[in-house]
Write a structure and sequence with these properties.
Elements (H helix, E strand, L loop, with lengths): L5 H6 L4 E5 L2 E4 L4 E4 L2 H4 L8 H13 L11 H13 L6 E5 L2 H18 L7 E5 L8 H6 L3 H5 L9 E4 L5 H4 L15 H9 L4 E6 L15 H12 L2 E5 L13 H5 L5 E4 L11 E5 L1 H9 L17 H16 L2 H17 L7 E7 L2 E6 L8 H12 L2 E2 L1 E3 L2 E4 L7 H17 L2
Parallel strand pairs: 3-13, 5-6, 5-7, 7-8, 8-9
Antiparallel strand pairs: 1-2, 2-3, 4-10, 9-10, 11-12, 12-15, 14-15
Helix pairs in contact: 3-13, 4-13, 5-12, 14-16, 15-16
This protein binds 4'-deoxy-4'-aminopyridoxal-5'-phosphate (PMP).
Cofactor: pyridoxal 5'-phosphate
Keywords: Aminotransferase, Pyridoxal phosphate, Transferase
Pfam family, one: Aminotran_3
Length: about 425
């Protein structure tokens, strides 16, 4: 199983058999409140009838159309609907099936763009420590989660550097929203530019809010500085918004929420409410045009997937984006975020807690690691909550909460109350 201690799982399997709205049902018939939107992806809540119907209709009408040299109208409609949600100017869309594919696609677009401009020597990529960009070789190379890299370290992409991460408990513990301290860490990019020369650097990729590594909220001014430095040197800035896009931070994208516009945005998860695997990359029109204009005839970009813009995925995307719009779920997330922040920070005085951090409808509760057993406390808290009927996530010693945007205030309280009970119960 993916990212699972298989041997341990066999002894204690946790299986889900149904889902509706805010709740899962487990194989032993228990109702479990979804505090994590599955894996940060079911933003509109589970089992949405409009999406179910759209997928069923599409499967009956056109199950599949080749994505190379042929197409189908809904993939263009879905691309337009995605472009409408992206920041102005990022209106050229390439479909993928996952976040990992979106990341590798974005990195390739960055290289293709520089090559098309006659700067093919710009091949160096810059990621960030503790960054998570999926599991492709591109993604783990620019990613900064060491266990994901170590086992494959001989085969990672060459010419990759990492900026420092921005997590610092000494300065920023228990920040509400964006922390005050840490904008200067973006200046490390200047050091890398001085070291390698800007003419060798293709792109910088960061998660604006880093999710899988433990909910790291960008310090005030940090992304603005990254933007200014990348712009100064003609380096593309990629925001990996696989978690952030589609309302997680109380806005269509992190770019919109934090008022910093990158050149490329990767997305997946919430794009289809996870009902069908789907992802996409949005790029500025100038990047698209540069790549296309560089080739007089024939294929301009040698990249694509059998299932790029799969009809079931585009049906799910169109139905999902329609729900977000009709129910104004991004605004709902923004409106709920103050109550969510309040509930999360009540855990500051709970046992083992060393930090609570939050933005929009995402929160991280960091625990003091147990001596000699890093991650054990958080995994015990996760199991305790699951047994009590609330699904949270853990990564390292941080619990991550990211509920569907349809959550009610009473359910927010239930999630954080259950976590408190778990923290009181564990050693
Ligand atoms: N990028 C980010 C920021 C992610 O959070 C994830 C998944 N958690 C990915 C990429 C990879 O997505 P997938 O698992 O769909 O390949």
């Amino acid at each position: 199983m993916p990212f699972t201690a298989n041997r341990q799982f066999k002894g204690q399997p946790r299986l889900l058999t149904q889902a509706k709205g805010m709740y899962y049902t487990s194989h032993d018939g228990r109702r479990i409140l979804d505090g994590t939107s599955g894996l940060w992806c079911v933003n509109a809540g589970h089992g949405r009838e409009e999406i179910v119907q759209a997928i069923a209709r599409q499967a009956a009408e056109l199950d599949y159309a080749p994505s190379f040299q042929i197409g189908h109208p809904d993939s263009f409609r879905a691309a337009s609907a995605v472009a409408e949600i992206m920041p102005a100017g990022l209106d050229r869309i390439f479909f993928t099936n996952s976040g990992s594919e979106s990341v590798d696609t974005a990195l390739k677009i960055a290289l293709a763009y520089h090559r098309a401009r006659g700067e093919g020597q710009r091949t160096r990529l810059i990621g960030r420590e503790r960054g998570y960009h999926g599991v492709g070789f591109g993604g783990i190379s620019v990613g900064g989660i060491s266990p994901n890299r170590k086992a494959f370290s001989g085969a990672l992409l060459p010419s990759v550097d990492h900026l420092p991460h921005t997590h610092d408990l000494a300065h920023n513990a228990n920040s509400r929203g964006q922390p005050e301290w840490g904008a200067h860490l973006a200046d490390e990019l200047e050091r890398l530019v001085a070291l390698h020369d800007a003419s060798t650097i293709a792109a910088v990729i960061v998660e604006p809010m880093a999710g899988s590594t433990g909910v790291l909220i960008p310090p005030k001014g940090y992304l603005e500085r990254l933007r200014a430095i990348t712009e100064k040197y003609g380096i593309l800035l990629i925001f990996d918004e696989v978690i952030c896009a589609y309302g997680r931070l109380g806005a269509p994208t992190a770019a919109a929420r934090l008022s910093v516009t990158p050149d490329i945005i990767t997305m997946a998860k919430g794009i289809s409410n996870a009902a069908v695997p789907a992802g996409a990359v949005a790029v500025k029109r100038a990047i698209h045009d540069t790549i296309v204009d560089a080739t007089a005839s024939g294929i301009e970009f040698f990249h694509g997937y059998t299932y790029s813009g799969h009809p079931l995925a585009t049906a799910a995307i169109l139905a999902t984006l329609d729900i977000y719009k009709r129910e104004q779920l991004f605004k709902r997330a923004a409106d709920l975020s103050a109550a969510f922040e309040q509930a999360a920070h009540q855990l500051e005085d709970a046992p083992h807690v060393v930090d609570v951090r939050n933005l929009g409808l995402v929160a991280g509760i960091e625990l003091q690691p147990r001596e000699g057993a890093p991650g054990a406390r958080a995994s015990e808290a996760f199991r305790h909550c699951f047994d009590k009927g609330v699904m949270v996530r853990y990564t390292g010693d941080t619990l991550a909460i990211s509920p569907p945007l349809i959550i009610e205030e009473g359910q927010i309280a239930e999630i954080f109350d259950t976590i408190r009970q778990a923290l009181l119960a564990i050693q």
